[in-house]
Design brief:
- This is Membrane-bound metal-dependent hydrolase.
- The protein is mainly alpha-helical.
- The chain has one domain.
- It has a two-stranded antiparallel sheet. A two-stranded antiparallel ribbon has the order 3-4.
- The radius of gyration is 17 Å and the shape is globular.
- The two termini are 29 Å apart.
- The structure holds zinc ion (ZN).
- The site of zinc ion has 5 residues, from helix 2 and helix 5.
């Protein structure tokens, strides 16, 4: 999931407007900022199908640090401690909540590859696999983003954030529907780089829009 995660950031920002938006935007993105870096470092392992551009054909074989509930949650807590120190305890707590919301929303979309603990031979992997139904997945993610944005954001932010979300969701459409017969790159590192660039670009743009139009 991509833009859908940011709906949670907007909701938390509307409830707690004193928290810097960047904290929440990075919080909801944390697992998807970590896995590309960990793939580059060889710590996490992803395989891609070179003849399919679909996100459902990306196999997250080993990603216990970025995408397990337990270890990922622990990393979020450690970073949340840093956020609490730098900003406020509330900002730290919301950073942790935002990061954990990422796992819960990924649970809806992913196939059964999300680890619960991230360690141990008896660990469970979960995922309800909405990505297997591309139209439903595409619509669910877009509607989540649009409905939350319209309900919770101040009036002046709704249109710019809807434009931003729509553009990025359309840029991501090929990974739902497979318009192109092949994947852009043949290496998981290309996917990792594209995911990282996409999330950073969205965070920077959304943060700029929110700071410019709200404060
Ligand atoms: Zn994710």
């Amino acid at each position: 999931m991509f833009i859908g995660h940011f709906a949670v950031a907007y909701l938390l920002l509307a409830l707690f407007p004193s928290v810097p938006p960047l904290v929440l935007l990075i919080g909801v993105s944390l697992p998807d900022l970590l896995w590309p870096i960990l793939v580059f470092c060889g710590v996490e392992k992803v395989e891609v199908d070179p003849v399919s551009p679909l996100v459902k054909d990306v196999s997250f074989l080993h990603y216990p640090y970025s995408h397990s509930l337990a270890i990922g949650g622990l990393i979020a807590c450690l970073l949340g401690g840093v956020v609490a120190y730098l900003f406020t305890p509330l900002a730290g707590a919301l950073f942790i909540a935002a990061a954990i919301s990422h796992w819960l929303l990924d649970l809806v979309m992913h196939k059964q590859d999300l680890p619960v603990l991230g360690f141990g031979s008896g660990d469970k992997k979960l995922g309800y696999g909405l990505w297997n139904n591309p139209r439903a997945a595409f619509a669910f993610e877009f509607l989540l983003y649009v409905v939350v944005t319209v309900i919770v954001m101040p009036i002046g932010l709704i249109v710019p954030l809807l434009i931003l979300g729509t553009v990025f969701h359309l840029l991501n459409a090929n990974s739902f529907f497979g318009f192109t017969p092949r994947r852009a790159g043949h290496s998981p590192k290309v996917d990792a780089a594209m995911a990282l660039i996409g999330f950073i670009a969205f965070i920077v743009l959304a943060n700029t829009v929110i700071l410019y139009a709200w404060f």
